[in-house]
UniProtKB/TrEMBL annotation:
Domain annotation 3-hydroxyacyl-CoA dehydrogenase C-terminal: ranges: 188-284, 494-590
Lineage of origin: Bacteria, Bacillati, Actinomycetota, Actinomycetes, Kitasatosporales
A GO molecular-function annotation: (3S)-3-hydroxyacyl-CoA dehydrogenase (NAD+) activity
Protein name stated in the entry: 3-hydroxyacyl-CoA dehydrogenase family protein
Family the entry assigns: Belongs to the 3-hydroxyacyl-CoA dehydrogenase family.
Length: 593
């Protein structure tokens, strides 16, 4: 099976098939595009002509290279045209019946050495291979949309696949300028297997009316650096397509995280399948359009939560990185800040950390020396909470321990003046349990900043059932003044970002536990296939495995979903003291500084 794969047939000339054909033709392969629809074939030719013309216009290829690529692509309406192909890639609709029919017909047409590849992202490659007369030559070759731009290709082996076939298509993927990752056969493979569980949870979160579609999407873009929010991405993928993938995953895993959220079925049944229909979670300017237009659910411009309380001075309790970062944010925005720690020495050290941060900004040209001095002058370091007596807003940023936070809030309740807003930066604890430690729970709210606070734009604003309307309005207004983007959510474990992020990270660990794919391949798949700025294991090591485990336990305890139980491998690494970058070893080893 050591073949150059110079002649390749692509069966199915929809968006994906046409994109794959373009990649192959530009890479010097003879490509036979096969589709029973004449309109699809004509559309593929027109698409290739237009996209290659754009490539010439942008200087990516020459006119001669374009002409040669177009000459290498021809279309046909019958599978018999694949007779001389050394590789056939099918990208027909996601149906066992349709795909198996294609493979049965190809068995009688192609050479015994021809490799048959399925482009499925949801169906079992093993089941498809078992229907072939030569299952050893059947594998999965999962490109990502748009195929010309996306670098990832998942090479999927079944228990029946011959290694030479895998080697041949892996080599081809590299010659196409793609990054192949080797994965086993299970619905969703790596990238979609992790991505669609996350998307499903986001849809369920929206369906539960926990947060608005805009806030869910903004939270994941700003909190995780993702190129798109999950609901906008579902609209792009196609809500019906996502539901089909999730149903296949759930049929295999029986994991409740993969059971399609009812809203996906409801929208699909109503024909509201996303961008292609002009409406899904959002409404678009036209079917197939990409510009979101206002609809009945769009928040009114400038609509806020009401009239808030005046805030001129802010207290920040804590002496760690988060506390100093939050103090820096408020001081830069012109607020007088009291930074209080357990001792004067700790408070001074925290202020010194802010001074170094400001100095770095000056050296990079982001801040003037005058602004640095003015910002630092607005910060008063104090060794006691007594300094909070006159602040208008008190923000705690101490250890993520309920008892410690409750003790702190009980102390702030006694010190802070009546009417002061008390905010907690907790990322996982129930805000109402912290509020109940005070005699004024209506004044308590969550303000979950993200680390590093000076750089990260997101603040999750967490209302409890007791939080007063004007307290909520106050915090929303303050977020605007400190140039942060507030998103509203209710008081439940994980809020928005962690509730969606950590189950995804946990599922990645389970993939490694099951020897399904390597750390490197999973990280590469999510960066190249999902547009994530970091792979899950890179992120886990940065966040800290102990922190991740604590959040996983809180989520599991609150939602009681077996699928949220922390992966045993995570627990074992934490028990062994392998906590990530901070200890020099987590999922990977790091050089000691």
């Amino acid at each position: 099976m050591d073949t150059p794969l110079s002649t390749i047939a692509v069966v199915g000339l929809g968006t994906m098939g046409t994109g794959i054909a373009e990649v192959l033709a530009l890479a010097g392969r003879e490509v036979i595009g096969i589709d029973i629809s004449e309109a699809a074939a004509l559309g593929a030719v027109a698409s290739l002509e237009a996209s290659t013309a754009r490539a010439v216009g942008r200087g990516r290829i020459t006119e001669e290279e374009r002409a040669a690529a177009l000459a290498r692509f021809r279309t046909a309406d019958t599978l018999r045209a694949a007779a001389d192909a050394e590789l056939v890639i099918e990208v027909v609709p996601e149906s066992y019946e349709i795909k198996q029919q294609v493979f049965r017909e190809l068995d009688a047409i192609v050479s015994p050495t021809t490799i048959l590849a399925t482009g499925t992202n949801a169906l079992s490659v093993t089941r498809l291979a078992a229907e072939s007369q030569r299952p050893e030559r059947v594998l999965g070759l999962h490109f990502f949309n748009p195929a010309p731009a996306m670098k990832l290709v998942e090479v999927v082996s079944s228990v029946l696949t011959a290694p030479p076939a895998v080697e041949a298509v892996t080599r081809l993927a590299r010659e196409l300028g793609k990054e192949p990752v080797a994965v086993g056969d299970r619905p969703g493979f790596v990238a979609d297997g992790l991505l669609f569980g996350y998307l499903n949870q986001a849809a369920a979160m929206y369906e539960a009316n926990y947060a608005s579609r805009e806030d869910i999407d903004a939270a994941m873009k700003l909190g995780c650096g993702l190129p798109m929010g999950p609901l906008a991405l579902l609209d792009l993928i196609g809500i019906d397509t996502a539901r089909t993938v999730l149903e296949a995953m759930y049929a295999e895993s029986r994991d409740r995280l993969h059971a399609p959220a009812p809203i996906l079925g409801q929208l699909s049944s109503a024909g509201l399948t996303g961008r292609k229909a002009g409406r899904g979670f959002y409404t678009y300017d036209a079917p197939g359009g990409q510009d979101v237009v206002p609809d009945a659910l769009t928040p009114a411009a400038g609509a806020e939560a009401g009239v808030g309380r005046a805030v001129a001075s802010v207290g920040v309790a804590g002496s760690g990185t988060m506390a100093s970062g939050i103090a820096e944010v408020f001081a830069k925005a012109g607020y007088g800040v009291v930074l209080a720690a357990r001792t004067q020495e700790k408070a001074d050290l925290a202020k010194g950390r802010i001074a170094k941060s400001l100095e770095r900004s000056v050296s990079k040209g982001r801040l003037t020396a005058e602004a640095r001095d003015e910002t630092l002058a607005r910060i008063t370091a104090a060794g006691s909470l007594d300094a909070f007596a006159e602040v208008d807003l008190a923000v705690e940023a101490v250890a993520e321990d309920l008892e410690i936070k409750q003790q702190l809030f009980a102390a702030m309740d006694k010190v802070c003046r009546p009417g002061a807003v008390l905010a907690t930066t907790t990322s996982s604890l129930p805000v109402v349990a912290i509020a109940r430690a005070t005699a004024r729970p209506e004044d308590v709210i969550g303000m979950h900043f993200f680390n590093p606070a000076p750089a990260m734009k997101l603040v999750e604003v967490v209302r409890t059932v007791l939080t007063a309307d004007d307290v909520h309005a106050t915090v929303r207004a303050v977020c605007g003044k400190i140039r942060k983007h507030p998103v509203d959510c209710g008081d439940r474990a994980g809020f928005i970002v962690n509730a969606l992020l950590f189950p995804y990270l946990n599922n990645a660990i389970k993939m490694v536990e099951e020897h399904y794919a390597s750390l490197d391949d999973i990280d590469a798949a999510m960066k190249l296939g999902g547009g994530y700025p970091m792979g899950p294991f890179e992120l886990l090591d940065v966040v800290g495995l102990d922190v991740s485990l604590a959040i996983e336990k809180v989520l599991h305890q609150e939602f009681r979903d077996p699928g949220l139980a922390p992966a045993p491998l995570l627990e074992h690494l934490v028990a062994a003291g392998c906590l990530g970058r901070k200890t020099g070893r987590g999922f990977r080893e790091y050089a000691r500084r």
